[in-house]
Design a protein that fits this description.
With about 425 residues, the chain is of the alpha+beta class. It is about 25% helix and about 25% strand. It has eleven helices and 23 strands.
Length: about 425
């Protein structure tokens, strides 16, 4: 019997069981062995069919999809968790191509080894094992997304934590989680949907992880009011996995690097990272602008690819978005760069909040445009301000709540300005 080469929490051990898996009749091996599939969906794991990994063929492991169950173990008498690649019928050196959804909407393949998933598990367990092992787990994130796979499947398998086999798809489902304590794996977009319709959920000692985007200060406050817990945000990407965290009730907007990550500012003020999850010994250069603080923490300042030149003047589209949110009339906004035969210019797609809808009720669109234009004039030169405006009920997002430029551009294909 092999032991895990990468130690995790002192109370949690992992083991290899490839030999046992190989020696079993094929009818007793997990369904995912030999299965493969590809998808172009954003952020999805392609190659091994990981969804089938949660349904082994052995009769004692046939559990209803809507049920909670501890991790299926290769030896039913054992109380030790499995290593995730044992369950999936993979080996630790096997690479899975993971597609990374970029803001352009065009996926990029990033190869990841099963051993890197396990290293990720080990670090999260070393920080928050108690929070997981004292609760059941539910997720709003598809396992096809790397964040959903790691936190919603890989971690509970490793720890033997009971988890719901079907993800939460409607905010109202949280109202039924009153039997025990829960860890909730969510995205900011899903939390936002929930706090818009719920006042106070009857949950007991909930713990929330969120990733896939930043939680605004307003959303952090509302989530605390509705769920009774300020979400713990994990910052990372498909290429880097998790590299930092924050909980705004304690840290405000400051991010704390993971203990196993080395972070510094590289070219153009963007973060560079070295961690066990990154194969290149030189590390990975992100496009995230940041400010390093004396205590080693950092503040994110937007994306370098959000900076464009308009009439030879550099402008951050993220800063324009933040200024529009400061009006107190905007629920959501996306600013993009468009171009015609003559020049490049900005365009803003805006979702008004209730106060904004009330203020501009029966107001002609050109006057609404002018209001926001005049507000932005306090901070920017006229030449760089958005030239096109769209006011919509909601912005198009993918399953993880991310906005893609192609879909936002489609909003401006209409003739009105």
């Amino acid at each position: 019997m092999g032991t895990a080469r990468h130690p995790v929490h002192p109370d949690v051990h992992s083991r290899a069981c490839n030999d046992r898996q190989k020696s079993r009749p094929s009818s007793q091996k997990t369904e995912c062995q030999g299965e493969a599939g590809r998808t172009e969906d954003s952020g999805r794991i392609v190659g091994t069919n990981v969804h089938s990994c949660i349904r082994p063929r052995r009769p004692e492991f046939q559990i209803r999809l809507d049920a909670y169950a501890p991790c299926p173990r290769m030896d039913s008498g054992s109380n030790l968790p499995c290593r995730i690649y044992d369950v999936c019928g993979s080996n630790e050196g096997e690479c899975l191509p993971v597609t990374h959804d970029r803001s352009t909407g065009k996926p990029k393949a990033v190869p990841q080894r099963m051993t890197e998933f396990e290293l990720d598990n080990a670090f999260i367990i070393s920080k928050w094992a108690k929070e997981f092992t004292s609760r059941k787990l539910v997720t709003t994130v598809s396992q096809h997304h790397i964040y959903g796979f790691l936190f919603g499947m890989s971690l509970p398998f490793t720890l033997g934590v009971p988890f719901r086999r079907t993800r939460i798809t409607f905010p109202e489902e949280f109202e039924k989680l009153t039997d025990e304590k829960y860890v909730i794996i969510a995205t900011p977009a899903f939390l936002k949907r929930t706090v818009e319709i719920e006042e106070k959920l009857p949950l007991k000692d909930t713990w929330i992880f969120t990733s896939g985007g930043a939680v605004s200060p307003e959303l952090a406050v509302r989530t605390t009011e509705v769920f009774g817990f300020c979400p713990l945000e994990v910052y990372g990407s498909t290429e880097t996995s998790g590299i930092a965290y924050r909980q705004q009730s304690k840290d405000e907007l400051k991010w704390t690097p993971f203990d196993n990550a080395k972070i510094w500012l590289g070219d153009a003020g963007c973060l560079r990272i070295i961690s066990p999850y990154i194969k290149d010994p030189e590390g990975f250069a992100t496009a995230d602008l940041a400010e390093m603080l004396p205590d080693g923490r950092f503040l994110l300042k937007g994306r370098s690819d959000s900076i464009v030149k308009i009439e030879e003047k550099r402008i951050s589209m993220t800063e324009v978005e933040n200024r529009l949110l400061q009006t107190g009339l905007v629920n959501d906004v996306k600013v993009i760069a468009l171009s015609n035969d003559v020049r490049q210019y900005l365009a803003a797609a805006i979702v008004l909040n209730e106060e904004g809808k009330k203020k501009f009720e029966n107001t002609e669109k050109y006057l609404i445009n002018r209001y926001f234009h005049d507000f932005l004039m306090q901070y920017f030169e006229n030449v760089v301000l958005p030239k096109k405006w769209r006011f919509v009920e909601e912005l198009p997002v993918d399953a993880q709540g991310k906005k893609h430029k192609v879909e936002i551009e489609a909003l401006f294909e209409k003739t009105s300005s």
